[in-house]
Specification:
Layout (H helix, E strand, L loop, with lengths): L9 H36 L2 E6 L2 E2 L4 E9 L6 E4 L5 E7 L3 E7 L7 E8 L5 E8 L4 E3 L11 E2 L4 E6 L6 E7 L4 E7 L9 E6 L5 E5 L8 E6 L4 E9 L8 E7 L6 E3 L2 E3 L3 E7 L9 E4 L6 E7 L8 E8 L3 E3 L7 E2 L3 E3 L13 E2 L22
Parallel strand pairs: 2-8, 9-11, 10-12, 20-24, 25-27, 26-28
Antiparallel strand pairs: 1-3, 3-6, 4-7, 5-6, 7-8, 11-18, 12-17, 13-16, 13-18, 14-15, 14-17, 19-21, 21-22, 23-24
């Protein structure tokens, strides 16, 4: 290792040491003053975002959002998971901002993420539901049958859990009408574990649902024999989620579990069928997956005569996809395999063709796509 070093006389060496010490301490004092100044400035002018409302949008419409916080200014910006969403800041003052988000008619149904950012780096995440049901706000005064909030049988409710208290909603159903009810909390990152009960006018419980096969969220469908008023009760199973968000959907959408196949190749058109209690009543769909799609997209489904939709996850892969019945021959890696285990203890086998020295990696996707299988 080479190096160069100059050796100065002792007196000169001491003088240089003293000058260096003074310079270092002047810089340290100046730096401390600057840090203190900028810290005080940031504390005095720091932006905060405390709430964003609403959380439901309709396809093809422009929705106005209200952002509340402190020291807000024109530096607010939005990042959306869907690039087709167009946003605009309409008005800003220090405690409240108004902005609009315009959605295309063919926007993907279901939950979307928005991120609001400010110049000082503060970031707030907000989940919106793109829904074809009219949105309603929880009125916060619906904790008994007598004070139940009246809903249309086509509603999506932006609810807040009240810890040990239930929220009650009253709907009027026609004779022979089928009603679907579901609660979303996981997509809101809510700690609530919802339970839903359905009652008739006599107080008789018609249905109760808790967890689904893959999630704490729950759903049911019910066909009413008689016309009349009915009550929906929503509560947290642990009585411990005060202030937690939930999205209650009431409509004529189908009760479905998952798509099949669970995955599709990007840049191609895939025919999707649906499984679940109403799977046979929903027509198959041809889905074209854009070549720039990454990860999971949501596929909307509705009954033939229905007016509202549900949505199901579909994994989008860059690898060719095969159904188990179409994979009878040896397959070349990389490849995606979509199968069904229809009987207890069933085992599905596939033949793969590999080359010498080639590494194969395997990943199973089930519960994230609505399937209760544990492979």
């Amino acid at each position: 290792m080479n190096y160069s070093r100059e050796i100065a006389p002792q007196s000169e060496y001491l003088r240089c040491q003293l000058l260096g010490y003074a310079r270092r301490h002047r810089l340290a004092i100046l730096s401390a003053l600057l840090v203190t100044f900028f810290s005080l400035s940031s504390a005095a002018f720091a932006q905060t975002i405390t709430s964003i409302q609403p959380r439901t949008c309709k396809p093809g419409q422009t929705t106005q959002f209200t952002v509340r916080g402190s020291n807000l200014n024109e530096s607010l910006r939005i990042v959306c998971t869907d690039r087709s969403m167009n946003w605009k800041i309409e008005q800003v003052d220090t405690s409240q901002a108004t902005l609009t988000v315009a959605l295309a008619n063919d926007v993907q149904m279901g939950p979307h993420r928005l991120w609001l950012s400010a110049a000082n780096g503060v970031v707030a995440q907000h989940t919106i539901f793109v829904d074809d049901l009219p949105a309603v706000a929880d009125n916060a005064d619906n904790h008994s049958v007598d004070t139940a909030q009246v809903l249309s049988t086509r509603s999506t409710v932006e609810g807040l859990c009240d810890a040990s208290q239930s929220d009650f909603y009253r709907v009027h159903a026609a004779a022979g009408e089928r009603l679907a009810i579901e609660v979303h909390t996981q997509q809101l990152r809510s700690p609530m574990d919802p339970v839903v009960r359905l009652f008739d006018a006599a107080g008789q419980m018609l249905r109760q649902v808790d967890d689904s096969a893959v999630s704490p969220d729950c759903r049911l469908s019910y066909q009413f024999e008689e016309a009349g008023d009915y009550w929906i009760e929503v509560f947290d199973s642990r009585n411990a989620a005060a202030g937690a968000a939930y999205q209650l959907r009431v409509g004529d959408f189908p009760n479905l579990n998952q798509c099949f196949p669970l995955a599709a190749c990007i840049g191609q058109t895939t025919t999707i069928t649906f499984t679940g209690p109403d799977g046979e009543n929903v027509a198959e769909r041809a889905i074209e997956i854009p070549s720039d799609t990454v990860g999971t997209r949501l596929v909307a489904a509705r009954l033939d005569e229905g007016h509202s939709s549900c949505w199901l996850p579909l994994y989008c892969s860059r690898h060719p996809q095969f159904h188990e019945l179409a994979a009878s021959h040896s397959l070349t890696l990389p490849v995606g395999l979509n199968g069904r285990l229809l009987q207890p203890a069933e085992v599905d086998s596939y033949q793969l063709r590999g080359g010498k020295g080639q590494t194969a990696r395997f990943a199973a996707k089930t519960r994230s796509l609505g399937s209760p299988a544990l492979l």
